[in-house]
Amino acid sequence: MNYKVLYRKYRPDNFESLVDQSYIVRILQNSIVNNKLSHAYIFSGPRGTGKTSTARILAKAINCLDNVNGEPCGKCVNCVNFNDSPDIIEIDAASNNGVDEIRELINNVKLMPSSSKYKVYIIDEVHMLSQSAFNALLLTLEEPPKHVIFILATTNIENVPITILSRCQKFEFSKISNKSMLEQLIKICDIEKINYTTEGLEEIVMLADGGLRDALSMLDQLSKEEKEITLELVAKEVGSISLKSVNELVEYVDKNDINNVINVLNKFKESNISYKIFIKKLIDVLSKNAIEILEGNGEFRLTYKEIKNIIFELNDCILKINISVNPYLLIEMILLSYVNVVEKKDNSKVITENIIEPVKKENKNVEVINNNIEKEEIKQVIEEVDEKISLKQEVVSESLTDIRINNCFCSATKEYLSTLGNKWKKFIGDNNLISLRGLIADTMPVVASKEYLVITNSIDHNVDELNKNLKEIEKEFNESAEVLVKLVIIKENRWKTEKEKYINNLKSGYKYTMLDEEVVKMNVEVEKSDNILENIANDLFDISKIEIN
Predict the structure, then answer these.
(1) What is the pTM of this model?
(2) What are 249-278's pLDDT values in tens digits?
(3) Any residues with CB less than 8 A from the CB of 34 and at least 6 apart, and which?
(4) Contact at 8 Å (CB) between 82 and 122?
(5) Residue 188, class by beta-carbon neighbours within 10 Å (0-12 exposed, 13-18 middle, 19+ buried)?
(6) What DSSP line would sit under 328-362, residue for residue?
(7) What's the CA gap between 43 and 170, in Å, rounded?
């Protein structure tokens, strides 16, 4: 079989051909030139960024008989025979991760190289080694024979014990930039005579997410079609979403077109496209729109702050999503929360521009028809109403939030803030309110007492959404933290004002006293009534005996 897949055919064989790792290349070449080689290296970073290739190039360069500025010549006997050299030992830790394999390696380390300057051990995916294997490797890795160099490679450096890391020189490989990857794909397509469109290759670059090997594998697969590599071909064969469709979706959200928002999302959901790819493209389009708004270009209903909130909430989907729930359902809920919808009396939905006209209420008089009802009884009803209205006027300026902040200040301490603050932070990570996680994540406890906890959020829209769900959040928090506290969620600017007021009150000697929340609740009930006289009259009299004008 003569055919070789593209990622193997175009695998770098010298430092010059490595893509986007110039900093690492420069240090390694200087080490070779100045003969200051380390006994052990560890290369970490995302897949497909050149870690194993760099390890092989380094092994070739240090054994080259005629390297120039740290670059292997490719002509000497060691370079020519490099792939078949018994002195270059490559080990896949994923399949050779036991202590027995490492002990065998340690025994062979003592043997001198057969024809090269150095015996080089390249251990790929080193994080897959067992704990006992790591322990066996420790001493040899710290003080190997002078003729041995270890090069470890991993995509999960956090799983490598610190005792191993401290014995190696560490190099962190970065993702390949989109620009560099596109240039590489165009170059290979020209050499291989593969027909392409720039949009098609850009889509491959986006899907590869910084991994050149992944990009070459997709290019190799699509080139078998013997068709021009277009955006449509990539979307069909690899599973992607056209930028046009994503732009349309954002436009539908901006225009409050709820039906088309749902239709487009259903189309994406049915196509089984990775939600991560979809969110990535959606965030990219929204980011461009946000910049246009800041620059004053284009006409958008959504504000810059709202678009920023959508982006953060979508990103939260990727980071904290519950995989047992269809991700597209969560994405749908996020987007629809920014489409303004109101309910009609007949329960049908209508799109609105979120402009609420003030309601003009006409004065209504109660005319009693039944002559048997005494005038004194009616007078008593009117007086009861007057009392409630008077009470309402006395406390209407005190909202529930105002009262809770006041009551929290009555007995607030740093100890309460520390205790409840830690419980709130734990609640953020553990709570079951999936749809609100992105909103809760940005909150910060600022003051607390035994019965109250005040929390701030710098994003106004988030505060409004959280307060709509305050009872649910309060219930979940109390159950999770095993406490019984009332929450207050306010905007950051509001907290600055309250804090300044609190400091001034302390200086002036003002003493906070507890206020009754029930008074506010009662007045809320009174406020909800469209016509107080009508409600009370209905309670006292048979509705068939009165007439409302």
Answers:
(1) 0.54
(2) 898 888 888 888 888 888 887 776 777 778
(3) none
(4) no
(5) buried
(6) HHHHHHHHHTTS-EEE-TTS-EEE--S--PPPPPP
(7) 6
